[in-house]
Amino acid sequence: MALISTTSKPDFLIIGAGIIGLSVALELKKQFSDSKITIIDKEKNLGAHASGRNSGVLHAGFYYSDDSLKAKLCRNGNNYWHAYCDEKKLKINQCGKLVIARNEGEIDRLDELYRQGQKNGVELELITEKQAKEIESNINTFNKALFSPTTATIDPHEILASISKDVLNANIEIIYNRKFLKKIDNIIITNSGNFEPGYLINTSGLYADVIAREYDFSREYKILPFKGLYLHAKNDSLKLRTNVYPVPDLKNPFLGVHFTVTVDNETMIGPTAIPAFWRENYSNLNNFNLNEFLEIISLESSLFINNNFGFRGLALREIKKYSKKKLIKTAGTLLKDINLNNFTSWGNTGIRAQLVNTKTKKLEMDFKFEGDKKSFHILNAVSPAFTCAEPFSKLIVKNIKSKLN
Ligand SMILES: Cc1cc2nc3c(=O)[nH]c(=O)nc-3n(C[C@H](O)[C@H](O)[C@H](O)COP(=O)(O)OP(=O)(O)OC[C@H]3O[C@@H](n4cnc5c(N)ncnc54)[C@H](O)[C@@H]3O)c2cc1C
Fold first, then answer.
1. What is the pTM of this model?
2. Domain residues for 171?
3. Is 50 in the pocket of ligand 1 (CB under 6 A)?
């Protein structure tokens, strides 16, 4: 080990400056005020991955089964960001959300969502078609709809910038262009210098499983990346008053193609959930990694052949949404008499770091973490983890504290 030069010995080293890494750092500082905390990120600036490439929706918390962490954290997370944006004078669009049933067959699931919302303590209104049309006249709903008044949209980049300022003000160090490469004993080797942290926290999103395996965690999990594409209108001609979502299939974690009203009152269509072939497969051969490609394609082929969790149907359905026409047609079922042909430009693609259990061959539906006395790994920080970031970070630090005692 004498050959490895150690440059820094922080008490806590966090890998990944996404919304989870930044929020965990702030919470750690509250709990361990004298500690030295360092965050490293391989990119040159904030928001290069999921935290800067999402829909910007503050979810209300009615999709998730009441025994899940998502259900327990979402309502508080939504409240937290509302108060934070208010305090810091950040943009927030309190536009709410309509979930609509397109036919009689979807009514049972709409009712189920309402019951789920009630169990989760979320403010939610089951309304008639007429009431729904008073909120958004163009919707195509059958008989009734759900209205969520607390769903809102924010600018994720604005929040990241503000939180990173809070982090720096709390005397926490953020180092960009610093990539975790591997661990040798307790030494973290990066592309530029090494660390010997007292404790390591892995909030690296798409690479969380890879880094966790360096610590002998994530043995039965792998990240399966799913690509989220968005379509924007040319002249921003479609003005909707609220987000319009379909009734989702609650067996999978994706909410279906919908209309999001952004914080600036623009409307976008998306996102898709197209299986990606490597983790940062944003476009063309961008960030191509042969080993990852082979590993992920082999997992996807096996899921496809065995049709685990209906992957075959999902993949075939989603892949068609590379066609703008198809995506518009899918979204079009949510609205009546609206011409969507001016939705012609692709927006910033996002990639979901979705965890698969390689033993059960199922998608993990809830947040997941693993850890011990030396390290802690956030393995499935999928949507709505942006919304949940603050209460989630409290839960993570509580768990870390219990490991350290
Ligand atoms: C298409 C899409 C839409 C979504 N919509 C919503 C929404 O509307 N509302 C909501 O609440 N949530 C939404 N989400 C989910 C939300 O964006 C994520 O749950 C959240 O951003 C996860 O944050 P994170 O910090 O875990 O990950 P990230 O933001 O991905 O951060 C991880 C960081 O780790 C860094 N990193 C990775 N590997 C290394 C390494 N080896 N060394 C150093 N650094 C490394 C990366 O550069 C990155 O900055 C959406 C996600 C997607 C993809």
1. 0.97
2. 7-56+155-220+359-405
3. yes
